[in-house]
Amino acid sequence: MRITEAAELYIALNVYQQDTADTLNRVARLFETRSGCRSIESIDLVAIKTFRDETLKVAKPVTYNGYLRYLKLLSKWLFDEEYVQKDWFSKVKSATLPIAPPKTVDDDVFLKAITYLKTDSGAPQPAWFWLIVIRFLYFTGVRRRQLVAIEYQDLDLKKQVLTCSYRGSKTYREWDIPIADDLIPDLEYLIRRAEDELGRPMREGDRLFNVCLFYHRYKPDPKNNGAMRREHVTGFMRRLSNKIGQRIGAHRIRHTTATVLCNPVDEEHEPDIFSVQKLLGHTQLSTTRNYVKTKIGRIRTQVNRMSLPK
């Protein structure tokens, strides 16, 4: 059995998220190409080392580690189901990564991006749409995949609540989060523009964010009823970063949301990290902690409270 065939079988029996299926298929193809190993029976440590070396020539260690997680998952399943006699990946270690603080977006970068989108005629179009996307990402902390999966019925403007649907969830869960007051005019405007393009009121099943409605150069997802794809968000963020000369991206904004909420301006109030965990949809508090960059000012305040006898 080819490795790609094994991946397809595993997906058919165990995977329910299209994103996960696409990634596993891609990793299986990469392993076959870079290791020179085609069948599951021919996998060995030499093939794994070859894959690692070839991958690290063109990708960062963090990318290799992501591939390795999927390959370990597939290998363990093949061993458990007795398709192979040994789980060769079981003792393969991930590449060592430096532990750096979370990457966030400073206020001046937000200001530069927003000003550029508002004033520059050469800004990515439709600029009004992308402004709303940036603001929405900031005030909600949602991922790209969640943003593009939001449907009209997930939004309750009267109660100011958004249901983060299982459709865009990495863990196939749903949870509710509040919609900030500042976002209400944005969302009302977005809905009006969408209804103008559709020629009808928005209804259940319509995607809330769909740039394809407003700009024909964006090609809709043929597998998902003409919906916007998360790659559209990635491409926009890359172009925006190049134009303003500063890095900005959906996941950096997500880290920023966590950092801002856990570093309140009023240092007399302790941050509510459990609320932040709920907002971001993390199942483990430790994950939320990894998202937060504690500002040096808060640490300085704590240090200056220390004293020694004189």
Automatic annotation (TrEMBL):
Residue ranges of every copy of the Tyr recombinase domain listed in the record: 100-304
Name of the protein described by the UniProt record: Site-specific integrase
Keywords, ordered alphabetically: DNA integration, DNA recombination, DNA-binding
Similarity annotation: Belongs to the 'phage' integrase family.
One Pfam family named in its UniProt record: Phage_integrase
Organism classification: Bacteria, Pseudomonadati, Pseudomonadota, Gammaproteobacteria, Cellvibrionales
Entry-linked SUPFAM superfamilies: DNA breaking-rejoining enzymes
Keyword Cytoplasm on entry: no
Keyword Protein biosynthesis (UniProt): no
